[in-house]
Amino acid sequence: MEIRLSEQDFNPWQAIQDHQAGQRQLVGKYGATGVFVGTMRDFNQNDGVLSMYLEHYPGMTERQLQRIVEEAKHQWRILDCLVVHRVGEVFPDDVLVLVAVWSAQRGDAFDASRFIMENLKSRAPFWKKETLVSGLQRWVEKNSDGYRPVSGY
Amino acid sequence: MSIKVRYFASLKERIGRSEDELSVGAPMSVRQIWRQLNPELAMPESVLAAVNMEYVELDSLVEDGGELAFFPPVTGG
Question: Which of A146, B2, B26, B57 would you label with A136, given CA atoms 20 to 30 Å apart?
Answer without folding.
Answer: A146
